[in-house]
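Case study 2.
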Amino acid sequence: MNQPPIHLSIIIVTWNSRSLLDACLRSVVSRQSSVVSRQSSVGGETDRDAPTAATDQNSTLNTQHSTLNTEVIVVDNASPDGTAAWLRTAWPQVRLIASATNLGFGRANNRGMTIARGAWVLLLNPDTVVQPGALAQLLAFGADHPAAGLIAPRLRYGDGSLQRNAFRFPGPVQVALDLFPLHARLRESPLNGRYPAEHRGAAPFAIDHPLGAAMLVRRAVLDQVGGFDESFFMYAEEVDWCHRIGAAGWEIWQVPAAEIVHLAGQSTRQRAGQMTVELWRARYHYFAKHRSRSINRVVRGLVRLGMVRKTLAVTWDQARGRLTPAAACALRRTYGAVFRL
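Prediction:
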């Protein structure tokens, strides 16, 4: 008996986010499903295969009474908190890829997309909670707009406030405003790559790129453009991906009526200094790939000046007693590492 087609594949890449992952999974998977799964080993990693056809028919999404044939794939990036073992017991309906090493964001998502069977693929961070009806809104927009290749929701922080999730592709002005913050209005203006439409209501609008926390992508886009560039380890992968998707003729949209709570940076916060270095490494890589040499020289000069400014500010804060010597030393070490990139 042939399995029914999968409408939606949800891919979650996690590292040391077990408690958050549980809430994320509860927001997209019905715990009422009875699931039969089997284990297999592929390439040194564990891929817990998809449920049987009968089980797939029972899988439901939290989409305001809509029932869709879905699969959920979790790629665990060698979490030291026992995430993989916990998933096998607590969430047997999830397809698990347990990597022996940390693959990074892009490579891990690519691994998930390789086995995904859905007509649509949702890439979701483990520190997100999908709100009722959000997935139905995203999928309905995609069905009505065949040129839309990637669709993003409106993101909110845990306290309900808006998280920016619509950006123009970055340039030197955005880098300067990031490193040398002036008036808040400038940081939130189109000059800094923001879209005023994000505050204006629920009407969908076209964008250059969203954050990577939640992105719905059409299968045809994956077939044409492929997945993430794996030379990015963490950060800027989604910016590069959207650049390539747009260059291939697809549109990228935000649908504000679809809301997802994003608890922002819960995994990366565990290694804040290292992640700051990785952020700028990735940004340099993006600019080198997509911008001219002169733009790259400007960006590098801005970043180095910015790191000098931050280092002087840290020294001043330490002298005023606002930072402990240990904290100040750690920050200076981080800014020095970025300067030397």
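Residues 31-66 have pLDDT under 50 and may be disordered.
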